[in-house]
Amino acid sequence: MSTDSSSHTGKRTISFDADEPLGPTAIRALALGCVLVLTGSYVSVLYEITQVVGGSELLFALVGLMLLAATILARLIRPRTAGLLALSVTAFGFAYYLTAAGVELGVVFTGTDAIISDTVALATGLPLLRMVQAGLWTLGFVPAPVFLSWYLAVRGRYGLGVLPGGFALGFLVLTSDAGTLVTLTGILAAIGAVALGDLERRGDSIAQADLLAALFALIIVLSLSVTVVPGNPTGPTHLVQGEAGTLEATIDSAPDRSGISGQVDLSPEVRFTVKSDRPSYWRTGVYDRFTGDEWVRTGQDRRYDGRLANPPGSHERIKQTVTAETQLGIMPVAPQPLSLDGDLSRQTTVSRHNQPRPETPIQTGDSYTVESAVVDPDPAALRAAGTDYPDEVTDHYLQTPEDTSSEFRDRTAEITADADTPYGTAVAIERHLRTSKEYSLEVSQPAGNVAEGFLLEMDEGYCVYFATTMVQMLREEGVPARYVTGYTTGQRVDEDTYVVRGLDAHSWVEAYFPGHGWVRFDPTPGTARSEVHTERLQEARMNGNEDADTDESEDVPIRDGPDETPVDPPSNPNDPNGSNEDRNNGTDPSTDPNNGSDPSTDPNNGSGPSDPGGQAAGDAADDGESLLDRLLAITRETALLGFVVLVGLAAGARRTDATMRLRREVGVYWHGFRSDPDRDAERAFRRLERHLGHRYRPRRRSESARAYLTALSAAAETDGDPPLDPRVDRVLEYYERATYGDGVGRAEADEAIEIVDDLARSRLPVVRRFRNQ
């Protein structure tokens, strides 16, 4: 490799000799490889989606087919035809997506409103995993950029070739699905493809490499730090009084996701009170998509308009009035809510799962009234419910991660082997988890799939683990189920009044039965949990925690007699298909003191996070190795981003000659290391010339050195400016002798340097003030 330089322009051109190993073929191969890396960056993001919702094999088949088609057609069709073909493939993919999403076939090709609506939602921050038909959207999205990028790259149009892939990656950045490392990798690959293409086109001369590096570094920084399109409001973002590290710390901190973490704690402080016709669990979140380490709520919210879905079949109705005792970002309701009343109802959104949520935090003292349907829990009716599930239910509540192990499936089948109805399957799984696992808040989150880790490896956990595992086991057996968060009944302080604390935060399971709707199951064992809750509430009262009670509850004993927890569908623990005995070891829940409504005595009282299941808590309590891994990941991302920014700054400085300008500016004040007297005399005059150019005007190309100084002296006399310092004549004399004459000695060169140093530094403000003093 050789470097050519020009003293006139100050620019350099990097070139490769013909006899060096990097020839045109190698350059082309590297450029095509960069395009493949860019393609792989956004395909890897889509692969993470299909791993959760299914379709990974079809995704890779589509990518391979598009690469093959682009390779073949690159020499057969023109770019315009290729663009039309890509659009046709995209149209077909999204037509299939709309059909699967429920748009009738006759209006699929006029369903642009639905496509635009979904696209805008994604571009404003809706993650792909929240899309109801995320898998189909992914398969409709991927063909066009893969085909066009590779088609253009094979034709040698690398600059255009990175645009489709860059658009795809940028769109996934907007949806928040593309992480930092993936984004940086993709953009660096795009830089490489364009730079190598320029190298190939210009005969091994990267003429614009510095400009490309600077521009792409700017793109990286902007893409990772600026939200181009403002996102949709997501509602309240935190529970103000939820202490970090508690189970409910993230009840409303991530309303669309519910994480699973390790060791957590309980908060005894009161959250809200409820006046209700009968006891119930108070639901705050419903989640349907399991990623392996968290739950996601799919679908977009709608503004509450007075309508909530009714469950199928007959049902009783209850009313409850909820009053906030602290600021809340959630809206607890008894399942299944039918209507809302009160001023807050006008500022409420409803999820696709019929769960309301306030648009802004509910303030202390605010209240609202809910009418809810009580689904008939009669076990005989549930056993006879059959399996004629609605398509809407089977399409969305049977999802399991694509990489679920055969060991998990086999173990689930073994546990449910004697069950011959969906209800019997649910009872068998619930009973197994209650009796085979212990309750504990001090656990470490397993790596990978949490449901698998809990069922196959762990001996203890809290409600998030129990509920998550049961939902996935039910789905493996073909029973639609979903993960639910909220609070258990709380402490009964009056005939129809319940005080609900952070201790009551909980997660449980809802399984679907045709003709009845969603029925609650709670696989978390009660006795150990009751003991933990009793201890925490006693500690809070002994420590004088005023937030642990209301005026009505402070004098109520922790143990308060019979249970106020809603009755579960009864079953015989020895009969997996369920009999008319309570599935809680054959006891009648209306008389079991260990099933109490008090958080200290209610085994069904919550120990898990109500919404994201302790995500923030896990952040505070993860083991050291997990924290170290995250810190290392952050460090790697920061280092890579910093490297890209430095490259961009260096390239921008070179492009704008900033380095040369800085060197010249510094050279006015500092001569540098001295060498040959003639060269020092010449350099001293160049410094003098730049100094005079700043103070008067630059030297014109047509002017000799002597003519320049003569013109400046004449202009100063004419304009009434101070005359030139007479010492400049000596600097000029030494310059002319060094350049055109017999040279100068060391003493003359040093004198010229000292004169210029004195003249230049007299312009500095500090020097001027010093001389004036």
From TrEMBL:
Region (Disordered): 346-365, 540-622
Residue ranges, compositional bias (Polar residues): 586-601
Signal sequence segment: none
Highest taxon of source: Archaea
Keywords: Membrane, Transmembrane, Transmembrane helix
Domain Transglutaminase-like: 455-525
Sequence ranges of Acidic residues compositional bias: 546-555
Entry-linked Pfam families: DUF4129, TgpA_N, Transglut_core
Residues that span the membrane, as ranges: 29-47, 59-77, 84-111, 131-151, 181-199, 211-231
Bias (Low complexity): 602-619
Record bears the keyword Transcription: no
PANTHER family linked to this entry: PROTEIN-GLUTAMINE GAMMA-GLUTAMYLTRANSFERASE (PTHR42736:SF1)
Protein name: Transglutaminase-like domain-containing protein
Native source organism of the sequence: Natrinema salaciae
Source lineage: Archaea, Methanobacteriati, Methanobacteriota, Stenosarchaea group, Halobacteria
